[in-house]
Design a protein that fits this description.
The chain is mainly α and 81 residues long. 48% of the residues lie in helices and 5% in strands.
């Protein structure tokens, strides 16, 4: 598999939970409801660091304000719901 991203742009699930202002457990429950979409993007429940395109999808879906450094990350794929 070819890695198209800089590893510094990956964000952990716990960091996203903090950005959303919820506990890690609450955030994991939310992710469980989106499992089919995340699996189609190559993310399993055990994945700890999320690539920028998945972070962008989650932030748009969960209404998380993404820090400016991550907003300009290159897009690998278009996410369709």
């Amino acid at each position: 598999m070819i890695n198209f991203y800089d590893k510094k742009l990956f964000i952990s699930k716990s960091e996203l939970a903090k950005m959303a202002g919820v506990s890690s457990r609450t955030f994991r429950r939310y992710l469980a409801t989106r499992r089919p979409i995340l699996e189609s993007l190559g993310i399993t429940p055990k994945t700890q660091k999320l690539p920028p395109d998945v972070v962008r999808y989650i932030c748009e879906d969960y209404c998380i304000d993404l820090p400016p450094a991550y907003q300009d990350a290159p897009k690998k794929m278009d996410i369709k719901c």
